[in-house]
Amino acid sequence: MSKLVVLCTSGDEDIHRVKVAMGFALTAKKAGATVSFIFIGRSVRTLVKDSINMTPEIKKNIEDMIKSGIEVSYCMNAMKNLALNEESIVKIDGMKKVIGGEEAAKKVDEGYTIVNF
After folding, report:
1. Would you say residue 115 has pLDDT above 90?
2. Is residue 46 situated within a structural domain?
3. How many CB atoms lie within 10 A of CB 55?
4. Domain count for the chain
5. Per the domain annotation, does 104 fall within a domain?
């Protein structure tokens, strides 16, 4: 079966696209794919606690991805570039902090195909 790394680069300017990326990842996982999901670039703003975009629906989608076996992470370089810190990011069990470019390169080396939203 396929191996996909979903790079979510869309942010608060297009929250619908973020939701589509999460839905795509969950559907691919249910179809039998191995899936990794990385919030990178502007999409890291989606993870800010108490922001307009960190809705119960978004949080549940992230939790559902993790429960389904999708590896969910966010880019710490993007977090810093957006003037955010770890305290501003919502805490969700199983979501990890990575260097997005390194993680994506590692996944490609492992045979993953990148899907960008």
Report:
1. yes
2. yes
3. 13
4. 1
5. no
